[in-house]
């Protein structure tokens, strides 16, 4: 008879306490949080988390793009370095679990492992670093995954520092204002783990509690400027109006129609429109559209971008305006490390947690890191599939189940000195 594996369960009390404390910062009073990157609320939660790290003996490191790391060296200096993390910034009026769960679970997992290994008299074979990535959400500064993309070499530092919010404030200036314009060298891990809420209801419907993501969809973040002519909304004859918002409306409708022609393999949105001068008594002279195209395959993204470019002049002409694509941020589709997928699934089975496999359509910092090292996101269910909203909710039991899988993943990785080919079979 095969002996059942010894399993390490996360310190659920510590996880709950950290989750509750993180939720205080930027609280909207209705269950949600509002702390876009480099706002005062975001600074406050990062300050708190950095203090938590220091109090437990972690060395706090902040790099030039404001990524916050807590490093704990338990093994030899040249031992493999395991990174676990997510992000503490949120969407405006967003949910309290998105991102923050991954950061506090990383700390709770490493602390649990550290305690249990000391109690068992085991010598750690890996070192650890917890990551809080800067501006994962892309709510205030675009593009999203900004800090992790600079870390991974996909974006230039100076370009990222010059990204500006709608008030013209730059990332670089706001990093200085909040005290997170660091100068430390970022740690270079051997692998990266991230735990996250799902953001869909597939797990809930299937009764699954653990779901490693197999693939991450690609995305195009397209900024379109529609230019009309500012005029009075009263006396200006209708036939003479060059209404930028009307032109924007035609484009928005077309972007949705693109998705309708490619059901389940293309997701599209125009979720932000900046209108100038934005007065109820002025025919708007300009509208800037923030358009997204997401697909699992590059050919679909290429097709949808080509169709949008072809259609744009005609759509604008219907409102007697002009439209121009002024920027496109591209994020490639890909697959997460199959060894980490297998490890997560094995551990879910060992705990008896129902599992399933999923793709992630939304972006995660693990997507950026996946381009340079083995990485994975493991999901737990979100009630009703709600994400980016104040009533986003995952039960304490499911949060703990995800934490169990996370801490057991790092325990088995540690037992084999970071050898991922061996980790899934480690007892």
Automatic annotation (TrEMBL):
<dbReference type="Pfam" id="PF01546">
    <property type="entry name" value="Peptidase_M20"/>
</dbReference>
<dbReference type="InterPro" id="IPR002933">
    <property type="entry name" value="Peptidase_M20"/>
</dbReference>
<protein>
    <submittedName>
        <fullName>Zn-dependent hydrolase</fullName>
    </submittedName>
</protein>
<keyword id="KW-0378">Hydrolase</keyword>
<keyword id="KW-0614">Plasmid</keyword>
<dbReference type="GO" id="GO:0016787">
    <property type="term" value="F:hydrolase activity"/>
</dbReference>
<dbReference type="InterPro" id="IPR036264">
    <property type="entry name" value="Bact_exopeptidase_dim_dom"/>
</dbReference>
<comment type="similarity">
    <text>Belongs to the peptidase M20 family.</text>
</comment>
<dbReference type="InterPro" id="IPR010158">
    <property type="entry name" value="Amidase_Cbmase"/>
</dbReference>
């Amino acid at each position: 008879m095969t002996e059942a594996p010894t399993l390490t369960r996360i310190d659920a009390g510590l996880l709950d306490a950290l989750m509750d404390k993180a939720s205080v910062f930027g609280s909207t009073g209705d269950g949600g949080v509002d702390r876009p990157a480099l706002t005062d609320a975001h600074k406050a939660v990062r300050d708190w988390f950095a203090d938590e790290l220091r109090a437990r003996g972690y060395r706090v490191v902040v790099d030039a793009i404001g990524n916050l790391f807590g490093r704990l060296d338990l093994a030899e200096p040249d031992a493999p370095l395991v990174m676990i993390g997510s992000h503490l910034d949120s969407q405006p009026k967003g949910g309290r679990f998105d991102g923050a769960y991954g950061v506090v679970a990383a700390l709770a997992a490493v602390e649990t492992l550290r305690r249990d290994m000391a109690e068992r008299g085991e010598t750690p074979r890996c070192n650890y670093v917890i990551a809080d990535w800067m501006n994962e959400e892309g709510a205030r500064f675009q593009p999203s995954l900004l800090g992790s993309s600079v870390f991974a070499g996909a974006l230039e530092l100076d370009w990222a520092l010059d990204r500006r919010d709608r008030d013209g404030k730059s990332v670089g200036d706001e990093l200085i204002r909040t005290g997170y314009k660091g100068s430390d060298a970022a740690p270079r891990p051997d692998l990266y783990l991230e735990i996250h809420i799902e953001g869909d209801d597939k797990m809930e419907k299937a009764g699954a509690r653990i779901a490693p993501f197999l693939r991450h969809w690609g995305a195009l973040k397209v900024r379109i400027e529609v230019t009309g002519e500012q005029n009075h909304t009263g006396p200006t004859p209708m036939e003479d109006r060059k209404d930028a918002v009307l032109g924007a409306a035609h484009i928005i409708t077309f972007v949705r129609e693109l998705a309708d022609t490619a059901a389940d393999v293309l997701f599209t949105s125009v979720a932000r429109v900046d209108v100038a001068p934005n007065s109820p008594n002025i025919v708007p002279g300009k509208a800037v559209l923030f358009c997204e195209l997401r697909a699992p395959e590059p050919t679909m993204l290429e097709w949808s971008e080509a169709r949008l470019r072809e259609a744009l002049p005609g759509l604008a002409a219907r409102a007697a305006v002009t439209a121009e694509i002024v920027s496109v941020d591209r994020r490639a589709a890909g697959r997460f490390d199959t060894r980490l997928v297998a490890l997560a699934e094995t551990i879910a089975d060992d705990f008896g947690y129902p599992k399933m496999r999923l793709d992630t359509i939304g972006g995660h910092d693990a997507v950026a890191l996946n381009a340079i090292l083995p990485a994975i996101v493991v999901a737990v269910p979100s009630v009703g599939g709600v994400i980016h909203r104040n009533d986003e909710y995952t039960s304490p039991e499911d949060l703990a189940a995800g934490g169990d899988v996370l801490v057991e993943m790092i325990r088995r990785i540690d037992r084999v000195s970071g050898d991922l080919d061996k980790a899934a079979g480690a007892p």
